[in-house]
Hints:
Layout: H1 4-15, E1 23-29, E2 33-35, E3 40-48, E4 53-59, E5 66-71, E6 74-79, E7 84-93, E8 96-108, E9 115-129, E10 146-168, H2 180-185, E11 191-200, E12 202-208, H3 216-239, E13 243-249, E14 254-259, H4 261-273, E15 299-303, H5 311-319, E16 323-329, H6 331-336, H7 343-366, E17 369-373, H8 379-395
Parallel strand pairs: 2-9, 12-13, 12-15, 15-16, 16-17
Antiparallel strand pairs: 1-3, 3-7, 4-6, 4-8, 5-7, 8-9, 10-11, 13-14
Amino acid sequence: xxxxxxxxxxxxxxxxxxxxxxxxxxxxxxxxxxxxxxxxxxxxxxxxxxxxxxxxxxxxxxxxxxxxxxxxxxxxxxxxxxxxxxxxxxxxxxxxxxxxxxxxxxxxxxxxxxxxxxxxxxxxxxxxxxxxxxxxxxxxxxxxxxxxxxxxxxxxxxxxxxxxxxxxxxxxxxxxxxxxxxxxxxxxxxxxxxxxxxxxxxxxxxxxxxxxxxxxxxxxxxxxxxxxxxxxxxxxxxxxxxxxxxxxxxxxxxxxxxxxxxxxxxxxxxxxxxxxxxxxxxxxxxxxxxxxxxxxxxxxxxxxxxxxxxxxxxxxxxxxxxxxxxxxxxxxxxxxxxxxxxxxxxxxxxxxxxxxxxxxxxxxxxxxxxxxxxxxxxxxxxxxxxxxxxxxxxxx
Length: 396
């Protein structure tokens, strides 16, 4: 008689225990691709097409890199046959590629003794592009341009907006370009004004994704800053009509051959969203990539924290006729802000900074233009000042 209530309790739970989970789910994401850390809404519609389910638990497992901002990712309820429910939540995600295969569903009897669970298919994909960086213009003027109209002064006479010079009139010249003041000074002769031709250029972007030291947290943070800078420059250069190619030295090695327009922009952004840091690779590997990846006399922009063993490769690129610009996130300044203040750390930071200054000066002597970028400061300001200095030097 003492065991009868327990047996009745177990029998009641066994009779009402679920035998199948005929549940269907469908996922809806607001956008197929967003910028990093941009809020996004997700809805998961769940419908019970089988028998009534008691104590139904529906749970969505968040992927690493996703932060929940609001809403609900689990429910526990009674769901009758033919009825449905919905999970709605808001989240943000770090740069990367995300895919969902399903949600976890578990049902039990009213007493919670026997349960049945499985994963319900609700596929979804999301591409999170690099975060936007505020760079409106590069102000770079490469030495070599392509024979197509664009925004870059080509230092050649032709069609443009900036005055270039005056020459004698030729048949076919527009009358709007006649220099009437000079014609009045020399009767019987006509002269035409010339303007500086504006063209596009070839840009090659190289992103250094190698792990150079054991400071994994610092290198990962600087790598993310570099990716944001590459994405911003790519968008600007392609909007100006230039031709852009890209190489990521990481794991795996990613290459995008020269191209124009929105198709090239989408291709580079998708590649950047999948870029990851890899093990150390010799920088000399650049010499083995096909020349069509970086056409002759291109403007090469390298994003790297810099390693002492890379200097011969920079010299080689300059010798091959490339115009090389190094944008180097400063790891010394970034790491120094995290160290405790004492005499030993101050001496270590001073030695590391002196070593970095020596390497940057050696690069300048090799003919490499350098932007020493402290990531807590806007890159646009440093890049603009460097471009103005280079343009002034060329004009002089």
